[in-house]
Design goal:
CATH superfamily: Tetratricopeptide repeat domain
Helix content: over 70%
Low-confidence stretches: 13-23
Distance between the termini: 79 Å
Strand content: under 5%
Number of strands: 0
Radius of gyration: 22 Å
CATH architecture: Alpha Horseshoe
Length: about 170
């Protein structure tokens, strides 16, 4: 009986220590990913985030971070896949993820998907002037000038500097 209790205690200790190592290792890879991203080494950043996801495949923040690196490096389809995973895992800052996914769709020329994502960003974060500005630009690219200028005016009223410059340069009041 004592041996059984001792064996169970040892197993519990092993499980707890492996969980702590698991968390530390994942966090270490995330930190390396941040360092590589900050230094502009996107390939190593992606590799580091991938290693972190191998250890902790349910962390929405890691998917979002790797997606951002893919977005910055022009891998728009891979960025969208990572942003989808982050959203599916209930990322705590979902508005940011929808915004970035909108940017990826816009870069791919998938304007309706971009508008949908910018709209979701606005629904989650109604004071996000940048999302209004980006959505407005997409509307203008689709020659929907009324919606485009209305969004850009809203962005300017919310303090978005690019929107304010855009309107000032065209002598449009907001």
């Amino acid at each position: 009986m004592k041996r059984l209790v001792l064996l169970i205690l040892i197993l519990i200790c092993l499980v707890i220590s492996s969980y702590i190592t698991f968390a530390d290792t994942s966090k270490e890879w995330v930190n390396k990913g941040k360092e590589f991203y900050s230094s502009g080494d996107y390939k190593k950043a992606i590799d580091a985030y991938t290693r972190a996801l191998e250890i902790n495949p349910t962390d929405a923040m890691i998917y979002s971070s790797r997606g951002l690196v893919h977005l910055e490096s022009g891998n728009f389809y891979k960025a969208i896949i990572d942003f989808n995973n982050a959203i599916d895992l209930d990322h705590p800052k979902a508005a940011d993820v929808y915004f970035r996914r909108g940017m990826a769709y816009e870069k791919l020329g998938k304007y309706q998907q971009a508008i949908n994502n910018y709209s979701k960003t606005i629904a989650l974060s109604p004071k996000n002037g940048t999302a209004y500005f980006f959505r407005g630009i997409v509307y203008i690219n689709l020659m929907n000038y009324n919606n485009g200028y209305n969004d850009i005016k809203t962005a300017a009223r919310l303090g978005d500097k690019k929107a304010q410059y855009f309107l000032k340069s065209r002598r449009i009041r907001w």
